[in-house]
Amino acid sequence: MKEWHVLHMEKTVVKFVRGLSENASLWEKRQHKRYGTVANCCRQIDYDMKHGVTQDQVLSMLNKLRHHDSYSDIREVDGFLERLNEIEKHFSPQKEKINIWH
After folding, report:
1. Is residue 19 left, alpha or beta, with left meaning phi > 0 and alpha meaning psi from -120 to 50?
2. How confident is the model at residue 1 (pLDDT cuts 50, 70, 90)?
3. Are 66 and 3 in contact (CB under 8 A)?
4. Contacts of the segment 72-75: beta carbons below 8 A, 24+ positions apart
5. What is the SS3 assignment for 8?
């Protein structure tokens, strides 16, 4: 079952960073407006993480999208980098903030 969640996470990320096609139907536009947000994408990835996907797997998938040749067609889509950075910001390890007042 863990493999299914890894594949689901990959499909979710690819679908989000690809965005909506220019010739999308009215139904696709309505579904994208409802479910195509960064919050929904991160929620689905968090669900997959509860079922065995590690944070390293998520970050490696984001890195693969950014650099691997098999995803070169997706990188040409307008807004790809902004959407990828939004997801990466949500799942990147948080660095501890230094409190200078204490």
Report:
1. left
2. confident
3. no
4. 74/14, 74/17, 74/18
5. helix
